[in-house]
Amino acid sequence: MKIVLINPPHTAIGSRIPDDHLPPLGLLSVGGPLIDDGHSVSLVDAEFGPMAMAEIVSRAVASHPDLVLIGHSGSTSAHPTARVIAEAVKRSNPEIRIVYGGVFPTYHWREVLAETEAFDILVRGEGEETMRRLADCLATARPLATIPGIAYRDGHGEIQATQPAQAIADLDAYRVGWELIDHANYSYWGGKRAVVMQFSRGCPHLCNYCGQRGFWTRWRHRSPELLPARSPGSIANRVSNSSILPTRTRPRRERPGWHSSKR
């Protein structure tokens, strides 16, 4: 199948740094396994510019794809833009199936499908294995009800959701599709070349204000030995700055709360 991945322009106030862009790791993580399954995959990264709507649609439909997948790591603030893109692509070519994935559609799949018919299928939770199965299902015309982790409208227009997909046990079994981007176009921290790499997913805690546990479920990690081998070519030759952003999954020194100095 011909599959186009779209990274919508992030429109939240204060969320974008002019001229600095990080690779859309979520879409690249989905794209790698699809390429390995023999699908023709391309990426439209609309963060650059940001790209005008007409250009996004033009690039998305130029190759006459069978499937368009829209996703964004900041999916709540980007959702209105994702919806506009989906509706514009659908008007341009109603035959294209449009899939939507990310945190927002995972939690609000019923509302998203009810508010617009532009999205045909929503991926709930991690996308790598679910998208592999979904692409194969669509290519072979099998029933959508056989694919865990999705939501869709059935032949009667009723909104349906399949059983949740199991969390990926072996993260090393799925590679990132780094070949979908030109690393020279991505920079951060004042124009320095940058790339995003993910070592672990999930969280052992159950904070009621956070969606980590609901989306990623339990904490899992990649092999420390395999991670460098799966990096985008030679990191030393491609990246000029590195930062580690740890989660709260490891012990760290306790610090007094902000209120302690006020007493």
TrEMBL record:
GO cellular component terms, A-Z: cytosol
Cofactor(s) essential for the protein: [4Fe-4S] cluster
UniProt domain B12-binding: residue ranges: 9-145
Record-linked Pfam families: B12-binding
Location of the region described as Disordered in the Swiss-Prot/TrEMBL record: 230-263
Record's keyword annotation contains Secreted: no
Keyword Transmembrane helix in annotation: no
Entry keyword set: Iron, Iron-sulfur, Metal-binding, S-adenosyl-L-methionine
Gene3D superfamilies xrefs: Cobalamin-binding domain
GO molecular function: catalytic activity; cobalamin binding; iron-sulfur cluster binding; metal ion binding
Annotated protein name in UniProt: Radical SAM superfamily enzyme YgiQ (UPF0313 family)
Species the sequence originates in: Rhizobium leguminosarum
Lineage: Bacteria, Pseudomonadati, Pseudomonadota, Alphaproteobacteria, Hyphomicrobiales
